[in-house]
Design goal:
- The chain is of the alpha/beta class.
- The protein has two domains: 226 residues, TIM Barrel (Alpha-Beta Barrel), CATH 3.20.20; 81 residues, no CATH class.
- It has 14 helices and eleven strands.
- The strands form two sheets. Strands 1-2-3-4-5-6-8-9 form an eight-stranded parallel beta barrel, surrounded by five helices. It has a three-stranded antiparallel sheet with strand order 7-11-10.
- Helix 8 links the parallel strand 8 and strand 9.
- Helix 6 crosses helix 7 and helix 8 packs across helix 14.
- Bound molecules: flavin mononucleotide.
- Flavin mononucleotide binds next to strand 3, strand 4 and strand 9.
- InterPro entries: Aldolase_TIM, NMO.
- This is Nitronate monooxygenase.
- It holds the Pfam family NMO.
Amino acid sequence: MLQTNFSRFLGLSYPIVGAPMAGPGSGRLASVISGAGALGMVGVGSRATRKWVRGQLDAASSMGQRRWGVGVQVWALPDQPGVMDEIEIARPAIVSLSFGDPAPYIDQVHRAGALAASQVNSVADARKAVDAGVDVVVVQGAEAGGHHAGQVATLPLLQGVLEAVEYDDVYVLAGGGIGTGRGLAAVLAAGAQAGWIGTAFLATPEAESPLLAKMAVLSAKETDTIHTRVFDLVGGVGWPERYPGRALSNPFARTWDPREAELAEWAQSADPESAGKLAAVKEELTKATKAEDYHVAVVYAGQAAGLVHDERRAAEVVRSIGDDAERHMRAAAELCVPDERYLG
Ligand SMILES: Cc1cc2nc3c(=O)[nH]c(=O)nc-3n(C[C@H](O)[C@H](O)[C@H](O)COP(=O)(O)O)c2cc1C
């Protein structure tokens, strides 16, 4: 069995967290991931209401036998009255406060009896999160699916963060690009306490995504993603500029990504002509989303999409990544042989 201080503390069978993912990461997905022995998390999007959050947290806790968590987008919380109160009432094991300053919410998370986590994209961000009082620093590499300020890949960032916080009393987890047991073994061997895994769950039947979006993930290669603000600028989603989203690349993204500055200008302009141009592109995106046309509509996913080859249940994904990681770590331990120079 693979155990770390983090997985032991939470009573998990695997050092795996099912990362919060607004959209696919519903209470149902969280509950099956937790039920399989990892820690499932509910992803709360920027437009989620208190009522929606209550329903999802109920689903996460009612079906799962074990502990579960929830992840919010800090920049959106001021416009989401009651969401943090609902989370406090539900008493999750861990609350991820990402994409903004976690400091104002940490006391409330601790009052709920939960660990406070935050995803970071640089060593400087990790230091800030530790100074703010988080218990769990989640290294989120640039290859991760969804939104982040990531320009540094998981491995160099993990090494830098572990060096920077080695004397602090925090758990360091690693996310971004972990799609198999090999990836989990790599980050555990480097010193992470668990893998924070999102994309590998996107094609599971329990993920709350349209079937054709799952098919797009299944057919994507590791080179088929793009880190872009295009979908947020066109869709009018208020993500701060420093957090583009990693999504599957498609003709729409490839057309508009080089014209991102123009889209941003149209979005900010008071001129009716600019507003008209943006509205036309938005209409195209809205129609395509309804029609599930992923040549235009967005599927947020990371480079690990290239490792998702078939539809498997979420519990099976947990078990295969966890059990394979254990095998790879045992094999790696065999690389350490006695040094013959010191044998009698
Ligand atoms: C579809 C999707 C939606 C996501 N939504 C959120 C979110 O709402 N909140 C959050 O903290 N992270 C979100 N993330 C990021 C994940 O928590 C995590 O960092 C990432 O999935 C890890 O990298 P991987 O996708 O390579 O496994 C999302 C990721 C994906 C793929």
